[in-house]
Design a protein that fits this description.
By secondary structure, the chain is α+β, with helices and mostly antiparallel strands. The chain has four helices and eight strands. Strands 1, 2, 3, 4, 5, 6, 7 and 8 form an eight-stranded mixed sheet that branches. Strand 3 and strand 4 form a beta hairpin. Helix 1 packs antiparallel against helix 4. The termini are far apart.
């Protein structure tokens, strides 16, 4: 839902409008059974995928209110596939407006959820795709992101330090002598 709202904001649409719901859809999980759309209709499909390349996770440790906080930033990529006569314009618009700041701008919507786009995504790739003996125009855009995950940190004051302990004597029993059966 977050990326639907972000893509709607990039394209200047209200996320609750029927136009946004008709234009922007999650990618079909089973592409072989996806509905065949008319060539003249615009469609923006999106899918969030793990980033398979290079350094997949950054980590930071810092103090916050005197307690250690560990954050991890795993990498993901948003694949946006635009179809129709205006596919190139939609892909370029999303690429440019994704980084706008402001109270209800796409980048601010992402940051509030702990999602950070990596600047300078590559230009969209324009292709032609066969769909039922007809050729459709298609533009692919990939945008990379980092998600902030807060990991639990342990300190000397954590409840785990108050767990009961059993001290074993060198002989192996709690009482310090061998027990016979």
């Amino acid at each position: 839902m977050l990326f639907f709202r972000v893509l709607s904001a990039c394209l200047g649409l209200d996320p609750g409008s029927p136009e946004a719901a008709e234009l922007i859809v999650p990618a079909y999980q089973d592409p072989e059974n996806a509905p065949r759309l008319p060539r003249g209709r615009d469609l923006v499909c999106y899918a969030l995928l793990e980033d398979p390349g290079g350094e997949n996770c950054w980590q930071t440790c810092r103090l916050e209110n005197g307690r250690p906080v560990t954050e991890a930033f795993p990498g993901f990529r948003l694949l946006v596939v635009c179809y129709g006569p205006h596919c190139v314009e939609h892909a370029h618009t999303i690429r440019c407006f994704l980084f706008l700041d402001g109270p209800e701008e796409p980048r601010a919507l992402l940051r509030r959820q702990g999602v950070y786009p990596i600047p300078s995504p590559p230009l969209p790739t324009v292709l032609h795709e066969e769909a039922g003996s007809l050729w459709r125009k298609r533009a692919d855009l990939t945008v990379f992101f980092r998600f902030r995950l807060r990991l639990p940190s342990f300190s000397p004051l954590s409840p785990l330090s108050e767990a009961p302990a059993v001290i074993l004597h060198p002989s192996g029993s709690p009482r310090g002598r061998e027990e016979s059966p």
